[in-house]
Amino acid sequence: MADKYKTLREEAFEANREIPRRNLAIYTWGNVSAFDGEVFAIKPSGVAYDALDPESMVVLDLDGALIEGKLKPSSDTETHRILYREFPNIRGVTHTHSAYAVAWAQARRDVPLLGTTHADHSDTVIPCSPFMDEEAVKRNYELETGNLIVKTCKDRALSSEGTTMILVAGHGPFTWGKSATQSVYHAAVLEEICKMAYLTVSLDPQIQPLPEHIVRKHWERKHGPAAYYGQR
User: Fold this and answer.
1) Is residue 198 annotated as a catalytic residue, yes or no?
2) How far apart are the first and last CA of the chain?
């Protein structure tokens, strides 16, 4: 194996190992990819997490051509490819079937912004796409999943920097970030936000969103021009 993609493969491998560590999927129900601006490395299809190693990661370019790898890439590869092509600022994508996020996706509901934990990571609802139409499913399901995510963001005027989490109706969550590791972090955060929202709505079905002035405070203190959360 050429050393050219060694670091990229290792990044993808380590990020994929975070999925079971964070209880975001059972069996093989999730995948992560890492992108270097030209090619991306992704988990092979149907391989258990404890059977992975850096050499098993599959490297492809943005045209979908195989660059390196002996195994078949994830069945969700086309979705990852579309997201990298359409969101050029991102460097990692994660897809899981974590239970609470999937529950909101199956209910076809946006995750409402109810508390400061949510506001620390997003200043808007977590959007849920509409169902994919029948013709799109027939064309290329995974590619059209990517197109549906991109269209949902565009239709709602959401940027891929301000929004790093989305639910695909009837399917589940996709998250992204500035690295593969950060995309998994966002997947773990999304699952907790979905769990908190589910419990809150169960306690009070008429609950109102968090007031905007509190949303702005929590978002800006972590992400605004005068952010002061953490070490600088």
Assistant:
1) no
2) 39
